[in-house]
Amino acid sequence: MEEQLEHAARLLRGARRVAVLTGAGISAESGLATFRGAGGLWEGQRVEDVATPRAFERDAALVWRFYNLRRANLATVQPNPGHRALVDLENRLTGNFTLVTQNVDGLHQAAGSKNVLEIHGAIRLVRCTGCRLTTDRGVEPLPDLPKCEDCGSLLRPDVVWFEEMLPHDVWRQAEEAVGACECFLVIGTSAVVHPAAGLVSWARANHARIIEINLTATVATSYADTALQGPSGVVLPDLLKRYAEGKTVDS
Ligand code: BV8
Ligand code: ZN
Fold this sequence. Notes:
Number of helices: 10
Bound molecules: ligand BV8, zinc ion
Structural class: alpha/beta
Order of helices and strands: HEHEEHHHHEHEEEEHEHEEH
Strand order of the largest sheet: 5-4-1-9-10-11
Radius of gyration: 19 Å
CATH superfamily of the largest domain: TPP-binding domain
Shape: elongated
CATH class of the largest domain: Alpha Beta
């Protein structure tokens, strides 16, 4: 692992522009469940079956129970050293750092990350199914069927469900940043959900050097110049330390 960490630190130091893709794994050490870990089931349902427009039409109260449970969990968790290491990296790369996240938990911003692209939306935001008014409700508990104060229609979580399009502008910015970077970090994602997972091959096609941080090998591993196997809350701070030490030597 020592050699891979040094290799990764060198790749990172060699980059002027850095982009990052994170998934549920970076929040695991904050205590939030991942989607496909431990069977990835919720009340015996697959997230792909609950996080869809059809599920919401079929049983909005069940979908809201799923999201209210996750909102309640969020109220009790903090960012972990992995989130904080990415804040440190962003501060060292003023202006040349983009963090693309599939997570809807807001923990990157809570840690202090600035340039965050939430390509799957955010669980703290709710959107009216009638007038589309979008409000930030934090993690306060909401009723099983919350209604819009303006028009009385049913509210929904402002997240991207399966079979829904990603927010166009945010996705375009993500593609641009990943296509322009010299080093791309892929952290805590199984890289099975598209189009997010497609950012890995897109980075490769644009000759970025790729560093993966994960507990296990994933679909992304074959694209990586180096894969650091371990918990991101431990590996990222270690990588940042080596990056910073080398920076003084190299520069
Ligand atoms: C789209 C928001 C165009 C909600 C999420 C058939 C019909 C229609 C579409 C499809 C289809 N077949 C495929 C598709 C495309 C589909 C898709 O990719 N499906 C997958 C399941 C195959 N994608 C879509 O539908 C997307 N839209 O394609 O629109 C379109 C339109 C109409 C018709 C066709 C196409 C929308 C995708 C967005 C879905 N919304 N989230 C919510 O969060 O509630 S996705 C959800 O999965 C989360 O965002 C999550 O982040 C994301 C990916 O999961 P991961 O983050 O990777 O988490 P996972 O648990 O999988 O992995 C965790 C990893 O961390 C593991 O590798 C583990 O080893 C590692 N780990 C664990 N602990 C640690 C760690 N690593 C480091 N340290 C640790 N401590
Ligand atoms: Zn409304």
